[in-house]
């Protein structure tokens, strides 16, 4: 009899869900009463963003009470349903000690406290609650309370067909609304989004609870607000759910159509509070102008997206690799370029090229990358050059100018070298090496930090890197919005990945890179050997384009039939976001560099645009184009 009643209940619930999905209104539920997330018609008007924020605040009430009894790890608290407590809420347990009195007046100022542990609400009754306790032994009379701001991880997921122009302003409104309450410590969930892609868990499955427990535990996201955007009746629709303490059932579910009146946020792209606190700051940053460059007037920067460009050099050869840096010793920006055989260094003076020095030496192999670095601490830039020959392998070297003329500091290096800016000071001062392997070219999941000592490289330590890391097409950045810097690199599937150590934070859905050198590796697997080819990638540029202290990433997107495309990865209220920009450059962008602006002004970008003269792409010319600061 009981089974029959249960079956009828499930049947009725299913019919209600089918009826709800067939309509087009909005749906909301109070905390603790999940709904299906579908849009019924004829119901109440769409719930406002303010209502969502109010519900989220109500889900985590301010509570202070005491322990009534202790039974092992189970404690009973003197607070019930009227307090607004929900299962999964975390409370702090403390024990009051001696009174603290003012030495002159004798007034009681409070009591000393000893922190004991935490209690996680398990069940809530009318007049009391039970919780799971972890910590030092507790006893009846110990105090239990909420403390500080609630840590809330904000995760944005989108289904196919949803345009970013609707996601960004909506997420920004929710983020700002939650921040204004002073109730939450908000963090972004890019790591979870990347993990979902890796585990092949669709957004529709995640909001239904699949993988929530695993993701919450893996990324320490005790409280998770998921904003799932999808299309309903050809309009963007938001399904918002709050998961507490890794429970697969949401504690709050609400859904509504995205209001068409919302506009994209202006002037705040990287999520830094510096922008909001400085109303006198110029609204049109280089980032804003780039994001609107070559797009329609409804984009971020409207019609004011024109960039002042200048050709600073035209070279009669094709640039293979380029790097740009400000020399610490004399504060003069310099450009290093290679055509595969020679190394050329130029100064940039009054937005024009001046020759500095050239290095040429007959050697086996072809140079495929050059980087500036200050590895000796002299304030004069060295050049780290990777050179490769199909027969002999890697033959990298490091150049310096200790006496005003270029000379080899270290040579015959059988590894792939990469100079990195680990500290974010604007100059690369650390050298990494990845071992060369004929089978894979790159050694999977391996990199070592090296220093120059007595004319050779000495290993300092091994550095943790993901298995997909390759020591070309990589840079360091703080695009994750934290003080710790992250490694951004292009993998062999031409996706941009951002990671800290071996933990991945972000992976682009769009293809990036392309147009780099193609390396031939000859393996002696049969008579005469057999050739295998590996495609190297241009180095992404990490640069703060809007002056808020959070760097953006610029990476070329060289396609077979289309040149002049770049991808920009920047931090917005919805987390890391990717936008493609058509620069209009007629050619392949082989490299992008930058020089800082004067007196903290806008930086200038320098792009090496290659135009080939034949189908085999063995000859051509290069145009170096520079963006000029906004007047």
Number of domains: 3
Structure classification: mainly beta
- Cα gyration radius (Å): 29 Å
What's the end-to-end separation, in Å? 81 Å
Can you count the beta strands? 40
Instruction: Indicate the CATH class of the largest domain.
Output: Mainly Beta
Q: Beta-strand level of the residues, as a percent range? A: 35-45%
Largest sheet descriptor = 6 strands, mixed
Instruction: List the strand order in the largest sheet.
Output: 1-12-11-10-8-9
Q: What percent of the residues sit in helical stretches (DSSP H or I)?
A: 10-25%
Q: If you consult CATH, what is the topology of the largest domain?
A: Neuraminidase
Q: How many DSSP H or I helices?
A: 8
**Overall pLDDT metric:** 82
Shape: elongated
- The CATH architecture name of the largest domain reads 6 Propeller
Q: Low-confidence runs (pLDDT<50, min 5 residues)? A: 1-46, 271-281, 294-305
